[in-house]
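Q: I have two molecules that I believe assemble together. Could you output C-alpha cells for the complex as a whole instead of separate predictions?
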Amino acid sequence: MRKRVLAAVALILVLAIALCACEKGSNDTSINPNSGANSKDYVFKSGSTVIEMKADAEAVLKALGAYKSSYEAPSCAFDGMDKIYSYNGFDLMTYSQNGKDLISGVVLRDDTVETPEGIAIGSKAEDVKKAYGDFEKDATSATFKTDNCKLLIIFDGGVVTSIQYIALVEK
Amino acid sequence: MKKRIVKIVICVVLLAATLFLLQKLLVPKYATTNEEGILSSEYYANAGNNDVLFIGDCEVYTNFSPVKLWRDYGITSYIRGTPQQLTWQSYYMLEDTLRYETPKVVVFNVLAMKYAEPQNEAYNRLTLDGMKWSTTKLDAVKASMTDEETVASYILPLLRFHSRWSELTSEDFNYLFKTEKLSHNGYLMRVDAKPAGQVPDPVPLPDYTIGPKCWEYLDKIRETCDKNGIRLILIKAPSLYPAWYDQWEKQIEDYAGKYGLEYINFLELADELEMDYNTDTYDAGLHLNLSGAEKMSAWFGKYLSEKCGVEDRRSDAALAAEWAEREAFYEYMKEAQYKQLREEGAVTRYK
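A: Yes, here they are, computed for all two components at once.
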C-alpha cells in the first residue's frame, strides 16, 4: 500500500515537473502581440539614411534628424507604444518589442519623396510594373512581399496614390 | 477490491488537485499588469438588473461610466468590453449575458468591424479566458482562434501556460486564489490627461470593405436583440485614433438604415458633448479619461432616458444600496488616482 502511494505521488511529481520543465520555444508563452526579426528587404531611403523594416529605430531616428511632429499610440492592454514620426514627405512608424523601438512602417505622403526604385505618388501603374514586377491589370493595389516587408502600392485610375512599407510582424 | 478502488480514487484526486493548483499558479493573473484581462470575469459578480449592456472594445470600457448613468439618470448598466474585442466576441458576450439577464438596450461599438479575421492570441485570451464555461464560450473560442491556437488550450489553460514557470512573480502567488475588483461595472477608470495634439493623417487602405464575418456576427447581434425584445444601438466612440474612415462610416450607416437601427457617431457630436481633447483623454485621443467618460455618459444617459425610455430605478431601495457601494468604490479609486497625480505626477496604477 505504502509503496503504491509513494509511486502515485512520484508519478504526480514527475508529471508536474514535466509540465513545468518545457522551455519556451515553439510554445512561446509570451503575451506580447509583437514579435519578429531583422533581415534584408525592400528599404526606403531618405537622403543617405536607409530605413529597413524591423530595424532598431533609435539609429534611424538619430540619422533622420528632427521630425515635424510625433504621435504615441499605446497598446490597449499590453506594454509598449506604437509611435508615428512625421517628416517632410513621409511618416515613419515604430513598435516596441523587448524594450526596443523597431521600425514597423513608412508611408509616403506626397510626391517630394520616392522609393529607391524610382516610384512616387503620381507614378503610373506601368512604371510600378517595370520597377517591381507584374500585377493584375486594373488592380486598385499591388503588394510586393519579401521576408520582412510588404510594399503596398495603391492606385486610382492607374496612378499611384499611396506607397506604404509595412513590416511583416506577427500580430 | 474495495481497497484498490479507494487507492485509485485517491491517486486521481491527488493528480487532479496537483494539476488544478499548477494551473492556478501558472495562468496569468492580470492583477498588476495587463489588468484589462480581469474585465471579462468581473461581470459574473454583477450579473442581473442591468437595463443597458455595452459590448465592444476599449472604446466602450474607457468611454462610458455606469456610475454616472446611475447617479444622473438612475440607469443600471454594465460594460462587457474587453481589449480589441472582435465583432464575433461581442456577439458571444451578448449571448453569454443572456444566460443571466435580458437588458432592455444593447449598445455595440462598431470600431471592431474593421477586423475581418481573428487577430492574435494575446487579445483573445484577455476576452475569452475570463468567460465562464458554457457552450457559448466554446463557440466564442472556436470563432476567435488564430491558426496557432487550440480549443484544448482554452479548456485546460495549463497546456498553454505550463512553461510560464520561469516567469512567475510574486503576483502569481499573491493572487493565486483571489482577485481584486478593478472596474466600475466594466468601466476602467483613468483620471489623468494627455492632450491629443496633432493626430496623424489616416493611412490609405487598399480596400475599405467590411469583412463578411463581421456582417455575419452583426446580423447575429441584431437578430438576437430582435428575438429578445432588446433595442440595439450602434455607436462609434469619439476616439480620434485609430482612424475611422468615411468609407466604413457609410457602410455602417447603410446597415443601420436598412434595418432601422439607431447609429450614433460620437465623433460627429464632439462639440455637442463639449469634448475637449486637451483635457478629456488620457492618451492623446485614443481613450477618454474620467472627465471625458462622464461627459459621454451625461449625454448618453439623457438619450437612453428620453429616447429609449430606460427607467430611472433609484427608488428601488435594494438597487440603490448596491449602487451606493459601487459609488463608494468609484470615489475611492478616483481619489486614489488623483493622489498619485499629486504625489507622483502620474497615474501608474488603478488604485
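A: One point stands out. The first strand of chain B starts at residue 52 and ends at 56.
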